[in-house]
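RECORD TYPE: inverse folding
INPUT: structure tokens
STRUCTURE:
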């Protein structure tokens, strides 16, 4: 079965990006994928420092996150847009997981994998600028990012008080992104 790992580049309580990645994950499940949703709050890593890496090795949580990436065929990633780019939290996690441990292949967490990317913001652009740089980053580490992507603008108007997306059109678009990601990952796995 195709395995998809879903996460947001935010550890904020009530994160909009958590909310949208949950919907995309549902779409991937409905397409037949096995989906694991994680919270980066459970994988806290120090800011990457090459000297500390040389002295102490890879932190346990960074290794655990990397192993999750390695054991999945594709990713659903929802990223906040911070000053037109990705948050340090997400970049730091991606950087740690790009480091090779003994017995691993270079960039094993990323090469041959598929990603579907999305962003959400209360602003009018929905984080569309972060998707440009996130796509570039993922492609550069060897992950194929599917052409479809979603930036959900004014996301706070599309949710209920429990922080779930309730707007039907948005749900349909996000589920479709999850489905396409799962289907592409399945094809690539064949
Ligand atoms: C440092 C910083 C920079 C931000 N820059 C942008 C931005 O460039 N574009 C945007 O739409 N929102 C920006 N925001 C607002 C975020 O979209 C907002 O904090 C959002 O809720 C983050 O996603 P989350 O709900 O998943 O945590 C910024 C927020 C922070 C803290």
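DESIGNED SEQUENCE:
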């Amino acid at each position: 079965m195709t395995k998809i790992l879903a996460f947001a580049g935010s550890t904020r309580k009530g994160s909009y990006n958590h909310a949208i990645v949950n919907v995309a994950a549902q779409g991937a499940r409905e397409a037949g994928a096995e989906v694991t949703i994680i919270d980066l709050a459970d994988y806290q890593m120090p800011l990457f420092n090459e000297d500390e890496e040389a002295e102490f090795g890879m932190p346990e949580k960074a290794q655990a996150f990397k192993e999750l990436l390695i054991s999945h065929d594709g990713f659903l990633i929802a990223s906040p847009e911070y000053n037109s780019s990705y948050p340090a939290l997400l970049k730091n996690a991606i950087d740690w997981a790009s480091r090779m441990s003994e017995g691993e292949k270079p960039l094993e967490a990323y090469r041959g994998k598929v990603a579907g990317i999305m962003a959400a913001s209360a602003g009018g652009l929905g984080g569309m600028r972060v998707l440009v740089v996130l796509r570039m980053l993922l492609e550069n580490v060897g992950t194929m990012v599917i052409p479809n992507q979603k930036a959900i603008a004014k996301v706070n108007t599309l949710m209920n008080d429990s922080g779930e997306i309730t707007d039907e059109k948005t749900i349909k678009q996000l589920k479709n992104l999850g489905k396409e990601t799962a289907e592409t990952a399945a094809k690539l796995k064949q």
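NOTES: The chain has one domain: 3-189.
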